[in-house]
Amino acid sequence: MSHLDSYGSIEPRGRDRAARPALPWPEHDLGPGSQVRQAYADQPVVTWTPEEYDEARTDDQSTLVPGHPDFDRAWSTGPVPTGGPDPHHPAGAAGPDPYPGPESDPYAEPAGPGPDPEPGTAPDPSAHDPVRPAGTAEPAPERPPGRWRGRRRPVRGGGSAAAHGRSSRAGRNLPAAIAVGLALGALILVPLFTKIEAFLGVLALAVAVGMWEMGRAVRHADARPPMVPLIAGGVLTVGLAWWSGPDALVLGLLVTLAATLVWRLAEGKAGLGRDMTAATLIAVYVPFLAGFAALLAAVPGDGRLRILVTLVAVVLSDTGGYAAGANFGKRKMAPTISPSKSWEGFYGSVGAAALGSALLIWLLFDVAPWWGALFGAAVSVAAVLGDLAESMIKRDLGIKDMSNLLPGHGGLMDRLDSILFAVPTAYLLLAVFAPVVS
Q1: Residue 254: domain span
Q2: What is the pLDDT of residue 218?
Q3: Which of 163, 297, 375, 391 is the most exposed place for a label (fewest CB within 10 A)?
Q4: pLDDT at residue 301, rounded to an integer
Q5: What is the pLDDT of residue 136?
Q6: Who's near 242: CB < 8 A, 6+ residues apart?
Q7: Looking at residues 109-135, what average pLDDT do you find?
């Protein structure tokens, strides 16, 4: 006795049904093709904002940017048609179809034995299929809608777009970033204008935290620099710069590196070169550059004002760059290092810092405005270079932030990167302006 096929076929089932060929797996529904498609369908859907993807994409994904057809195809959330031409793979397009039809399906059922085709006619691959009606082709496998179909799946975890509803265009939580920024500003300015020795303590604490973050970050490159002599020597370097000037700053750096080398040799010679390279980078990048802030603050009479105009120039540079880049940014400045930076944002940084510094230095130091504009432009360029330098370090290490210590900012080093390059520039320029400072 036969009955209708539940899949819509009217072919008989029973004794009159053609013999089904043996398959290498027990049942058709458990074949390798079904397992692969089921495993793919069970993957969780991960949605990204375009800014997150723009930061995480690699160099070979230069076409996956907003506005490019590849980007629109990769972020498609609509259902993928299973019949007719694929709108994402038009006829004549170069490259193989990643979702082949039944003619190239390696898991299609082999046809059973049947009568030979008439001379001059092509055999019908579905003529002897006991399940699919004769003359019909097997439908192409369905692709789950809303999945990532780009050339490479991003490596960094993401969340839903709703979770970033309060984020800025840079992917940060803007309210938290503003609150933390104001708190950091108060932590610096209050001791700066109340008790200068307290500002030195804040600076030493920032150096210690920054070196700790750098020590954790270089572990991604299998470097293990000894942090005890590094942090102790970094704090000593800042103190020596405060008490004895530039020569003591260089002496503190040399003492720090010597103590770190002796400490590391006691642990063995394996990996010595790698660890000492990382230790030298940390010692120069954090305490040595931060020592120029101590040199600025130690200037008799107007040391506080020198620190103030430097910090204001850096803040204006960051603010002007963000405003210009968010509204007018089109041309990427360094896409392989920091994809979010644009030349328009750079011009905004330099312009805002130059204008603000021209006014502020004229009011505080009675210096001609063009000298203040030069000061602001130079500090802005140094701040941008510092930001790019840390972005390059983080990209080489494969991390996004130095830590998650500051909500909305990442780590403390993610805030100090611009300042560390700005303070030596400000120290040198203000030393030139010193003869005309009242």
Answers
A1: 194-436
A2: 94
A3: 163
A4: 85
A5: 56
A6: 200, 294, 295, 297, 298
A7: 51
Backbone angles phi, psi at 58, to 5 degrees: -95, 180
The yes-or-no verdict on residue 358 having pLDDT over 70 is: yes
Rounded Cα gap, residues 81 and 41, in angstroms: 16
Distances (CA, A) of 47 to 32, 75, 160, 164, 395: 28, 9, 5, 11, 23
Residues 12, 26: Cα–Cα separation, whole Å: 22
Cα separation of 139 and 87, whole Å?
17
199 part of a folded domain: yes
- State residue 340 phi and psi, 5-degree precision: -80, -10
Mean pLDDT of 341-347: 93
In a domain, 213, yes or no: yes
Count: domains in the chain: 1
Q: Are 400 and 156 a contacting pair, CB within 8 Å?
A: yes
The reported pLDDT for the residue numbered 400 is 85
How many angstroms separate the CA atoms of 268 and 273, rounded?
A: 11
CA dist 80 and 203 (Å) reads: 57
Distance from C-alpha of 260 to C-alpha of 248, rounded to nearest angstrom: 18
Encoded tokens for 393: 């370090």
Q: Does residue 301 fall inside a structural domain?
A: yes
The answer, as to whether pTM is greater than 0.90, is no
Question: pLDDT for 175-202, tens place per residue?
Answer: 777 888 788 889 999 999 999 999 999 9
